[in-house]
Specification:
246 residues; mainly beta; 16-stranded mixed β-sheet; 16 strands
């Protein structure tokens, strides 16, 4: 169960504040999280609004970076100003710096979250990490909170952390997850998972209210990495569900 303890973020992620800094990425405005020189969840960690931790480059790509300075490790998170609701969410992860495997204690989170507690904070997660276990083969997972309920989590493995598209389609009666990537010599590969109303006794689908899309890069249990870690996201997209007609 250690590999999923990060999901306690659903209990502590609300702690924090939005800095005055806003970035524009993929046509949307995102507030940058600031822990105001205190350790807050998830992790807990220090979250910095500094441009050394969060920035958008000339190609329009979003950079999230964990950095060490002033004798502290600083993490990164951005929060959409818009609440999207039902529809398809897609994140394209284009790069990992330095190249290679993601540090075992680093977590990339792509998810929705509401500060209101209903529906387990309306938290729908794609998480990329090995949760401090270097020997763990799987490096990614899908979750519908609460994570501790049977059947609410699926672990899987991608051949690379970078050059992967992760996402999910959130509907009134279910959530459909999809990840796609290229692997040599296998070519195009994908992973899917469907979580639908009634699939398990506790399968209650969150209903939209005031949730936001979020992206963060942080340290599991505050364990320090060997070096700075940077994730580059090429794009985020949202496609609302098409209206149904009788």
């Amino acid at each position: 169960m250690q590999c999923v303890r990060f999901l306690l973020l659903s209990m502590i992620l609300a702690r924090g504040t939005l800095s005055a800094r806003v970035v524009t990425f993929s046509g949307y405005k995102w507030n940058v999280k600031d822990s105001v020189e205190e350790k807050w969840g998830p992790g807990p960690n220090y979250f910095s609004p500094d441009s050394r931790n969060v920035w958008v480059d000339e190609q329009g790509r979003l950079h999230l970076k964990i950095t060490f300075r002033e004798n502290r490790w600083y993490c990164a998170e951005v929060i959409s100003q818009r609440s999207f609701g039902f529809g398809s969410y897609r994140w394209r992860v284009s790069n990992l710096l330095p190249a290679g495997e993601l540090d075992a204690n680093v977590v990339l989170g792509l998810f929705t979250w509401s500060d209101r507690p209903e529906f387990a904070h309306r938290e729908i997660d794609v998480g990329v990490s090995r949760w401090g276990k270097k020997e763990l083969q799987s490096n990614s997972q899908y979750v519908i909170q609460p994570y501790f309920s049977s059947g609410h989590l699926k672990r899987f493995t991608t051949s690379s952390v970078a050059n992967v598209t992760h996402g999910f389609t959130w509907k009134e009666d279910g959530v459909e997850f999809l990840s796609e990537w290229e692997s040599s010599p296998s070519g195009a590969q994908s992973e899917t998972w469907s979580f639908v109303e009634g699939s398990v006794p506790t399968a209650i689908i969150p209903q939209p209210f005031d949730e936001n899309a979020r992206m963060n890069l942080w340290l599991f249990q505050s364990v320090e990495p060997l070096a700075d870690v940077e994730i580059v996201l090429e794009s985020f997209s949202f496609t609302p569900l098409s209206p149904s007609f009788p």
